Fold this sequence. Notes:
The chain is mostly helical. About 35% of the residues lie in helices and about 0% in strands. The protein has a domain at about 1-160. It starts with a helix and ends in a 94-residue tail after the last helix. Mean pLDDT is about 70; it is low at about 180-185 and about 330-340.
Amino acid sequence: MTSTFLTLRYVAFALFILFNAVICVVAALNLGSLATGTQKFPEVDAYLIFMGALAIVFLFPAIIVELFRKNAFISRVAVEITWVSIFWIMSLSGAAAMTAIIPELSCLPAGTQLKSTCASSLVLLAFTWLNTIILLAYLIVLIVCAVYHSQENNHVWQTGVRDFKWFSKQHPEQEPPEGSFTYGKIKNPKEPKQPPPVYAQQMGLSKGYQVEPLHIDAAGPAAEPAPPALPTLQNFQFPARPTPALQLNIQGSEPYRTILPPPANVTTPKPPLSLYPEFVQASGGTIPQPPRPAGPTPPPAGSWPRPNPQEPIRRKSRPARELPAEPRGPSSQQDPSGSSSAPRQLPSPPVTVQPSTTRNRPVGPRGSTDPLRVPLP
């Protein structure tokens, strides 16, 4: 497909050069008729000569440079769209001018005065319109192809028309040519191509197997078969549950009655009423019980437990024991051998307290700072 597109491109350029050469020659002949006075619009002929000469001088070097240089500036997609658009506008202007002056030249079957001028004007009119149509068709095709491939390769606008792979199955990311703009896009690193996997053994159906074709019923899909009915049981009775074993009453047995005495009827006190439900009572602590009166037997630990632990303990004071008088005798004196015994205690003289009429003064330093300690007069 790429070769076909490039072939049509070169054909369009060849026709464009050929038609412009014809326009230059005919316009020059038409302009030479000024000496005879038959040409009324020399400006149009001069414009067509300039347009044809410019197209030939520009297009020949562009094709030669494209053949010998890869990604030439003049052959890039964006640049080629620009100069093709300029030549299309120039061709359209020349064709419109020739269409406007045809009635003025009386180039109609009734007019017989300017036959040579009418013939050259009709030739210029035809070739200018042909150039306009060729350039317009090539311009539309080139823009559509560039926009289509720009979705897969963003460097299509900076690549030469001859060097880009048009309409190929695989469009590898091509590097932009040197000195071109990348429109602010970052170049992604290339990933190495992985070779296709090689299978040592190919699995498949042999020649002896045939695939059964699929047949579709026009009436619709077949109904699914109903599940088989379960067998019904008649006169079936479930087995009765086994009766629990009889509980053995040990206390009511004869040996128990004869050996052990009958239990005494002891009345247990009822617990006080509680406002909490049973599950709260089970999870919480026990209900405080009032203290039970102590029996006639004294407690083993004296006054413990006390009825009121916060009350201080009152202990009975015991009388002080009197020391026995120390005997006096020869054993208490010093031994003649020089061994000393316990020191001898002398009787203390009696102390008599005499009544005094004077008042006692406080004892202590006079410079005390205690405000409560005031000397008496």
